[in-house]
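Now for one record.
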Amino acid sequence: MKLIKSASAVLAAASIVGVNLAPVAMAWGDNSATGHRDTYKLENCTADLSSCTITPSLGDKITFNSITNNPEIGGDERNFVGARVNTGVNSGKGNNWNADEITVEDGKEYLIRIYAHNNNTKGTDGVAKDVTLHYTLPTTAGTTLSVQGSIDSSNATPSRVYDDVVFKSANGQSFYLDYIEGSALYENNGVGANGGVKLSDDIITSKGAKIGYSALDGNIPGCFQYDSYTTIRVKAHYVNNAYEVQKTVRNVTNGDKTFADTVEAKVGDTVEYQIYFNNTNDETLNNVIVRDVLPNNMELIDGTTKLYNVTYPKGFVFDANTITTTGVNIGNYAHGANAYIRFRAKVVDNSMVCGTNKLVNWGQVGVDKNTIQDNAFVMVKKTEGCDKTTETPNTPVTSTVTELPNTGAGSIAAGVIGVGSIVTAAGYYLASRKSLR
């Protein structure tokens, strides 16, 4: 069973490529048999690095980020993922990147960088193929979070190299990182010159985003003039223990009666999401805003958003379908008071791949400037129109949201229902958080 979310509990959730229950120190590595690729050194370089000797000689071998004394990145290329506060100013090589760990502040925006360098010295005669970048962002809240960056190439040895940077809390308070949609920027001397070129948000999924020199075609020639810098932006949000939030789901089409963290479904099925809120603060929380962020391949069913609390034990139906846009205001809650918000969505095939698709859905509860969120998963296996060679049953493709915006009370017009009243814990209690009928 999943823990209810608060600052005192780990916000267990799925990462982009799997379940991440706790931050894991990954550091640099690769997918070679040993996990420790061959390394090289620069010798006899000109000041502009236009001419260098690499020892031992690479010959025709193509490899990424394996030079241990590269002045472009401050030394060891294996340490190629870094982060810094986004000041809005690009100082080029003067940027102060934290390549190992960085301390975060609430509400600040950070840049996370991947440096990619095909170490082969033969230029266009040593082209790396199908070069793709990935960022693995945690959807876990905690006091220490690791972000991994990886570089894949079909003809490189090894074919994948990776590194990470660790974000740490300044005061021991839990936080999470929101990816800012559309923020991936690729810079090089070719297609990404003069301010860079945008990359797809696929860069934070298992699909990844292709890069290239003269076009985003996956082709990167060897040597320094073809290296590149790619950045994404994230925002740090601290959470507190003022209230609890839990997100669950059930498959209505299958007749499920119990809500769970994860359900299986097929295209065309109707699922019902539930967001549980409980005020654990000693004081009354006013204008509680509930918002949900649907993933791709899920469509809200109009008129299904319902609130259950002491005032509405049989449910209150919202006229407006704003649960997935501006959110809904569910009123004021005294200490110990709680509520459930439910709505239904249909599984559709807008962008599913053959094989298993993980549809990640986020529920958010905001009070003032604070937001606490939790997620639930719907697993959909697509087989229609597929064959065995195109299915990916062992590597679920995650369909998720990108930026999770703050849903504090200030972001929505006050007063959908009961703004003048206070819900208390007395008189009526919704006893079962998982199986409310």
In short: Residues 243-423 form a domain with the Immunoglobulin-like fold (CATH 2.60.40.740). Confidence is low (pLDDT under 50) at residues 1-26, 390-395, 400-421, 425-437.
